[in-house]
Amino acid sequence: MIRSLWSGATGMSAQQLNIDVIANNLANVNTNGFKRSRADFQDLMYQTIRAPGATTATGATTPTGVQVGMGVRPIAIQKLFTQGEYTQTGNQLDLAIEGKGFFKVLRGTEELYTRSGAYKLDKDGYVVDSEGNRLQPEFAVPANTVSIAVDSGGRMVALGSDGTELGAVQLQLYTFTNPAGLFSKGKNYFIPTPASGDPTTGTPGVDGVGTTAQGFLEMSNVNVVEEMVAMIIAHRAYEANSKTIQTSDQLLQMANNVKR
Question: Which of 52, 158, 175, 228 could form a Cys-Cys staple with 166, CB 3.0–4.6 A?
Fold first, then answer.
C-alpha cells in the first residue's frame, strides 16, 4: 500500500507535466512557425520478488516472474517538426519554407535558426525579423526599390519601377540531422546542440532541402482537436492516479483500525 501511494504520486506528477506541455501547445496555436511538443514517459524501476525463469525446488523453470512497478517518470519533451499549415498574406517579405530547413538570423554574434518567416525592413534597408535580427545572408534593399521578388529557389531580388534588377541575394536554408535535438530559445528561435548535430547549409530546392514560398507564412502545427483530446486523457489519468492514492489511504486506515 505504501508502494502504491508513491506510484500514484509519480503518476500525478507526470500528468501535471503532460498538461503543462499541452497548455503550451494550445497557447501557441497561432504562433507562426511554432512546432508542438510531446511529453514522453517511461516506467520506473521494478521490485523483483521473483525473477522470470527462476528454478523452483522441483527443478522446473517458472514461465513468469513477480515484478512490481514503482511508477512513472518523464524522460523527454520532444519537438515535433511536422509541416504546419500555410496562410497567404500577400506581404512580399513573408516567407514560408515548404519542406525541410530553417532560416538563420544573427543576433549580435549569436546564430539563431527559425521557421518563422515574417520579415521586415529596418531603417537601413536590411531584411530583419520582428526582433530586428538580420536574415542571413544579409541583404540591404536599395532605397529606390519598388518591389521584392523571391522565387522557390530562394533567390531574393530587389526590382526598380521599370523592372530593373537593383540587387539580389541567394537565401540559404539550414538543415539538421536531428532537429528534435535543437535547444529552444523562445521567440521562435533554436540553437544547435550536440544532439541536433551541426547545421548543413543548402540551397532551397536542392538535395532534399525545402523550397521558399513568398507571400505565405507557416502556421503552428498544433492541432487543437488532438490537443483537447490529449488534455482530456491526461485529466482522466491524473484523476485515476489520485484515486489510487485515496484508495491506498483508505486501506491503510482500515489496517490501523483492525484492533478497534
Answer: 158
Given a contact cutoff of 8 angstroms between Cβ atoms, the answer to whether 90 and 62 are in contact is no
Instruction: Establish if 229 belongs to a structural domain.
Output: yes
Ramachandran class of 169: left when φ > 0, alpha when ψ lies in -120 to 50, beta otherwise:
beta
Residue-range definition of the domain harbouring residue 126: 86-218
C-alpha cell at 205: 530546392
* Residues 42 and 120 placed together within one structural domain of the fold: no
User: Which residues make beta-bridge pairs with 47?
Assistant: 68
Question: Of the given ranges (11-25, 43-57, 103-117, 189-203), which has the lowest mean pLDDT?
Answer: 43-57
**166 and 180 together in one domain:** yes
Euclidean distance between CA atoms 167 and 203, whole angstroms: 19
**H or E element: which one contains 241?**
helix 224-256
DSSP state of 250: H
